[in-house]
Amino acid sequence: MVDLLLRHREIAFWLTAFSITTFLASALLVPVLCLRMDADYFMTERRSRDAFANRHPFIRNSWLIFRSILGLVLILLGIVMLVLPGQGILSMLAGLLLLHFPGKRRLELWLLRLPGVLRAINGLRSRAKRPPIELPERHP
After folding, report:
1. DSSP 21-42
2. Other CB atoms closer than 10 Å to residue 73's CB: what's the count?
3. pLDDT at 108
4. How far apart are CA 42 and CA 57, in angstroms?
5. Is residue 30 a contact partner of residue 90, using CB atoms and an 8 Å limit?
6. Cα–Cα distance between 53 and 31 in angstroms, integer?
7. What pLDDT sits at residue 140?
């Protein structure tokens, strides 16, 4: 593997640059998104509290497209960061929070209940003096 990278220095350079970029992006974006989330975000079935709901349809749709693109980018970067340095699962969770699709809530709760994920998010929130994320009880 090392021999392959030495023979293809340009590939090694771009892989390294991509790894550093994704690490820095996740280190900046994921904490911001985790801190902005309401502590009771997962406690009830939420109707969309979209700040752009009463805006012009062009503005609302532009916002939804932007959120979706950002969400997809975070999910893809999260998948890559499962192998490269970075906060892969947290990045994927932040990306999922931005998307809208059927079964999203169930998937988010499953991810949050993975060992260490909720602990990492609440640790970050605790350092910022924000209340911890609350999760509903599991259904039997």
Report:
1. HHHHHHHHHHHHHHHHS-TTTT
2. 16
3. 81
4. 28
5. yes
6. 26
7. 44
- Answer yes or no: pTM beyond 0.90: no
Other C-beta atoms lying within 10 Å of the C-beta of residue 28: 9
Residue with tokens 């994704």: 22
What's the CA gap between 65 and 44, in Å, rounded? 25
Cβ pair 99, 68 in contact under 8 A: yes
Burial 84-105 (b: 16+ CB within 10 A, else e): bebbbbbbbbbbbbbbeeeeee
User: How many Å separate Cα 88 from the centre of its chain?
Assistant: 8
What's the CA gap between 13 and 8, in Å, rounded? Answer: 9
Q: Which residues of the chain have pLDDT under 70?
A: 1-2, 4-5, 45-51, 85-86, 139-140
Task: Dig out the tokens for 71 from the structure.
Answer: 């969400």
Distance CA 83, CA 112 (A): 20
Q: Looking at residue 140, what DSSP letter applies? A: -
